[in-house]
Amino acid sequence: MRRPRIGVFKFTSCDGCQLSILNLEEQLLGLLEFFEIAYFREAADLPPKRQYDVGIVEGSISTEWQRKEIMEIRDRTRFLITIGACATAGGLQALRNWANVSEYKRKVYPSPDLISVFAISTPVSEHAYVDYELWGCPIEKNALSETLVSLIIGKKPGFPVYSLCMDCKIKGIPCLLVSRAEPCLGPVTKTGCGVLCPSFGRPCYGCFGPRDGANIDSLLERFRNLGMSQKETVLLLDKMNTYAYRKARIEEAH
Amino acid sequence: MKKLIRSDYLARVEGEGGFTVRIENGRITGLNVRIFEAPRFFESFLEGRPFDDVPDFTARICGICPVAYQMTSVHAIERIFGIETSLPVRQLRRLMYCGEWIESHALHVYLLHGPDFYGLESAFAGKRYLDIAKKGMRLKQLGNDILTVLGGRPVHPVSVRVGGFYRVPERKTLADRLSEIERCYEESLEGIKWAASLPFDDRPRDTEFVSLGHPAEYPFNEGDIISSRGLRMSAEDFLGVLQEYQTEHSTALYSGIKRGSALSPYVLGPASRLNLNHEKLPLEITGVMKDAGVTVPIRNNQMSIIARSVEIAYSFYEAMRIIREYEAPDRPYVEFEPRAGTAVWATEAPRGTLIHRYELDERGFVRGCSILPPTSQNLSHMEKDIYTFVEANIDKPSDFIRKETEKIMRAYDPCISCSVHVVKV
Fold it and tell me: What pTM did the predictor assign?
């Protein structure tokens, strides 16, 4: 029986999530027994294929070429997985969605007219149906290998969708918000990183994106009671998952 | 007779780039390296952000070299705030850079570039290369491990901050890794011999090599800009002798050194660092280099795989030295007050000298910044190398020219996602 065929694709991004695939180290060699990596430009000089069983997509959509390309890839792929904040939430570069892109272009490029990009950076899911999303900036690499193994055995991949708070308690890390009055996004953020920042004594800055049903407005009010201005609290949300946190706040309000 | 040779999407490099060459009647009429990686406008959205966002944000410029961005940015901001970090913090930052050099160089040498010398489309495509690939992956893994201990994860570590680190490891946590680091160090010495044995076109090229230079150490986080043509100046002054320009065929800006009315290309990266700083390497390593027949200076950037292999070994050596001498500091970071100011700082990213410039206001918010990555600085010289090669092989079959040009580009270890972040300075 032929091994399922994987294609790895990159859009607007830093390459960190693709690198996480290569950072699987020995697990990667194990995966290669069960999958054929048929297209992965960073690692192999192989031509594109007409059909893939699994498409792994990194990066947000921010140009016309990318918008067309992702729809093409969706057509040729049975199961589409997006990996990382850029693909799932538009990434840090989505900060431009709330600004004036012509200004941005002028600041960076002497001849801005030669540069053609969308005014906004959006997640893949705004353009094509996504079968599974792995959030994180970067993703947690073991989440990817677990997802691929689940696919082989026909199991639905599943990861905890509660907030970081649960995992901080399990690890015995005293709550930064409660005990140190620090503005931690943990309560409104999906767990999955291994509570890295709290382990390093710093508040969560939300690189895994909003958890479902998070009460973001309430948390921001708490931060304001700690002395932060309204503007400062919004700056906390406007990072790698800015688009997703803002969207979650709008949906929460309805 | 007209020929158009193109590579639309170069494989086994970081990011999206390619090239086109036009040949008419035995002469090159057009040659471009094309960078089509989508711009993300970091320097624009950093404006108005607080200083402590900068290391986390700039890390996202690149998944392979986030530490380079974090290091350069915190040093520049510390210069503005007048902060002096403690010796253990300084050493830990060097150790973190060792981890990144190992991870990045091993990725390139063994998985991205190495297959070129064996005619393989990937490191996993041939049985005869598989053992070499696995060895490279072991070295890379240890580099990632060092970054995980110091920063929580190798891609976008979380521990680096202005003033030091959020948390520092205990001595024992680092010392526990010594035996594995020693084992990999020995393997990396073998790696130098292997790299030196690969086939090269080693004809000297007329190249200006540029890197940081430091009076006491092989450079990571500190030093002046020096070059093989006698340049010696601060990073700030170096920005003054650089000219950047935009081309139609690229989303990355190019740069050259102004000399009179001419703009000359230059090379950054491991070959430059090795050429300009090899006397700072320990005798153990220079001994192995000599036995393997490696002569410095390396005259041709196509042989950079040798320099990268030397630097992998040096990074393991330096990691052992730092760990053996390490005493955890009393405090992981120093307290400070933000203040207004401007600073330029350069550090040696795996691919070469990375330069940042920040202007902060009195609260420490970013008023403006410029980021000059090594790959964009290398683009002019990359085109020059390709031109030299194509000219000398103008009558060869298109397929041959295309494949060899791809190898020339790969030898630069381009980090294309980074290169789209050059700003008008």
Answer: 0.96
